[in-house]
């Protein structure tokens, strides 16, 4: 099995993973992320206590890439401070836009690095970055409950 097959398998596995796809009890922040060009739609639900993302989940629908990217992002940022999570959002977005490729820097993204080659598929970049832009928006603009009522 070559590296691309391993990455493809991880993306498919994560897109089917139901662990992070759930309603969150007592979220402090809720925001809709929508990609009108392909119909991907996710709602991120976070519980932020102090400065820490104590819990995060999502609901929604979309292609395997958007769903896997969302699930992997949740695993990556859960338990982090808002500033650390924001830093990873910016790093992920820069990676898929081919603005950074330093392996040491990308290691911080953990499993999310599987999306590095998505830059070669421009039509799918929006699918991969959807959850990361949505989380970035929540953190930067303090999108609390009420900014989007499901």
UniProtKB/TrEMBL annotation:
GO terms for biological process: iron-sulfur cluster assembly. Pfam families: NifU_N (PF01592). Transmembrane segments: none annotated. InterPro entries: NIF_FeS_clus_asmbl_NifU_N. Residues 7-127 form the NIF system FeS cluster assembly NifU N-terminal domain. GO terms for molecular function: iron ion binding; iron-sulfur cluster binding. Belongs to the NifU family. This is Nitrogen fixation protein NifU. It comes from Anaerosphaera aminiphila DSM 21120.
